[in-house]
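> Could you send the 5'-nucleotidase SurE prediction when you get a chance?

Sure thing. Input:
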Amino acid sequence: MKLLISNDDGIFALGIRTLANTLAAAGHEITVVCPDRERSATGHGLTLHKPIRADQVESVFHPAIQAWACSGTPSDCVKLALGALLAEPPDMVLSGINHGSNLGTDVLYSGTVSAAMEGVIEGIPSIAFSLTSFSAQDFQPAANFAEMLLEQLSHGPLPQATLLNVNVPAVSEAEIAGVVITRQGVRRYFDQFEKRVDPRGKTYYWLAGEVIEDSADPELESVEAFKLKGVNLDLAWFQQIPTDVQAIRQNYITVTPLQYDLTCAVGITQLQNRQFYHVHPS
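Output:
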């Protein structure tokens, strides 16, 4: 399988090296295009007002891997790879393995998820991988799962415009409880800005928020709202599906299908019942 791999932790991150090398050793054709430095929490940002530079990198990855370090964001990296660096589209876009979790509403800020989502926007099946610890250094269990997941998907492709967001608990393979399909949870943060003064006497602020872990369950849309999206959903069944935030606490690998369509179906149904009057300027 031809794979494009990116990340938001940068070209020298252990997570992307472990993922790329493991998949190359398994016989996949790997191209790496990722930021030349850490670009975490950049969301789906693109570089529009300055040039993007990409330099080939040697002696970092498995010898069979072609790799570029890009000056742009994670989304830039995938966009550049698909539009300029690759001779033909890959079979799949992978992002990660991120150093730290991407659970619940983290996906809205995540450069890791955004890099994979760029592949989905271009019509290419994509997966984002994250290891749920900022201190753990053993990415091999997550890379092994990635290899197994790709093998399974080779026999049955993902639904169109679907991204898989995979989070792997930072424990040994023996301690992983299993794999569970999850829905997206909610992670709320207590945002705290530390006010500091630089050596020149100028004030600056450093974001030092802490996650509130007990907000695990999102509000669910109504059955009618899902029908509006073309989904015939048993809401009671859907509520029984654990959220990624819940399942990861029990040492499960979580696999959450995501999409780029953020339309709020409930909002459409409610707004259609209102009358809006356009005021013409006099």
